[in-house]
């Protein structure tokens, strides 16, 4: 590793400080989740650049579509398989 690749002492201190802040925030988030679990645990929503959610911040997700993560994953796996099979031809 060359001298150019090494962090300065100031950079090392800043990195340690940032890592501690990130860890503290993660612990705080975990504790909050344990006290207030999400009703939609295990679910996630994909928003693309054409989503109406980007135009209207007051719009509720349940008015658009809330799809379970298993449905999303199954669809993504199917898409990847098609793409993989198409690449072999």
Short structural description:
The chain has one domain (7-42, 61-88). It is built from three helices and no strands. The protein has helices at residues 9-35, 61-64, 69-88.
Report on the architecture of this protein:
- The protein has one domain.
- The longest helix has 27 residues, at 9-35.
- The chain is built from 3 helices and no strands.
- By secondary structure, the protein is mainly alpha-helical.
- Helices cover 57% and strands 0% of the residues.
Q: Which segments are poorly predicted (pLDDT under 50) over 5 or more consecutive residues?
A: none
Based on CA atoms alone, the radius of gyration comes out at 21 Å
Provide the domain count.
1
Indicate the percent of residues in helices. 55-70%
Distance between the termini: 44 Å
Mean pLDDT level: 76
* Strand residue content: under 5%
Query: Helix and strand succession?
Result: HHH
Beta strands, count: 0
- C-alpha geometry: extended
Structural class: mainly alpha
Largest sheet: none
Number of separate helices: 3
């Amino acid at each position: 590793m060359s001298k150019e690749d090494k962090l300065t002492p100031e950079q090392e201190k800043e990195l340690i400080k940032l890592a501690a802040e990130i860890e503290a925030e993660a612990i705080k988030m975990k504790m909050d989740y344990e006290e207030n679990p999400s009703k939609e645990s295990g679910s996630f929503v994909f928003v693309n650049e054409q989503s109406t959610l980007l135009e209207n911040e007051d719009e509720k997700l349940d008015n658009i579509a809330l799809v379970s993560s298993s449905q999303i994953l199954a669809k993504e796996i199917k898409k990847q398989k098609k793409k993989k099979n198409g690449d072999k031809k």
